[in-house]
């Protein structure tokens, strides 16, 4: 399991982790930190400390209370939404992007996922 996969699992369970000195600290809702997750934290402690030390991690927490409330779209969001509308001559198409990247060396999967 990669560090990002572990952090995603923890985040989905509302478990917050941070580095304090040479230790990984966490705050978890009761019953959410299983024995398996505790073991993963122990196994990946050094990599997790390195990751937390190097990265400025920002995690977005779901706002369950206001999740269905209306909100204003940005100009670009409005453009994307209108572009999907078939009422326009060239409409009915979502935003697409394409990119090719060549690498001259082997890649570290964990580092790519972090990037």
UniProtKB/TrEMBL annotation:
Gene3D superfamilies: Non-ribosomal peptide synthase, adenylation domain
InterPro entries, per the entry: TubC_N, TubC_N_sf
Pfam families, alphabetized: TubC_N (PF18563)
Domain TubC N-terminal docking stretches: 3-52
Name of this protein: Enantio-pyochelin synthetase F family protein
Originating organism: Finegoldia magna BVS033A4
């Amino acid at each position: 399991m990669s560090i990002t996969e572990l952090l995603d699992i923890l985040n989905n369970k509302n478990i917050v982790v941070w580095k304090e000195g040479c230790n990984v600290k966490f705050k978890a809702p009761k019953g959410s930190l299983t024995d398996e997750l505790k073991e993963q934290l122990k196994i990946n402690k050094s990599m997790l400390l390195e990751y937390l030390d190097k990265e400025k991690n920002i995690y977005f927490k779901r706002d369950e209370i206001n999740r269905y409330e209306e909100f204003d779209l940005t100009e670009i969001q409005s453009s994307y939404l209108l572009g999907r509308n078939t009422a326009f001559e060239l409409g009915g198409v979502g935003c697409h992007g394409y990119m090719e990247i060549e690498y001259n060396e082997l890649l570290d999967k964990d580092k790519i996922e972090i990037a």
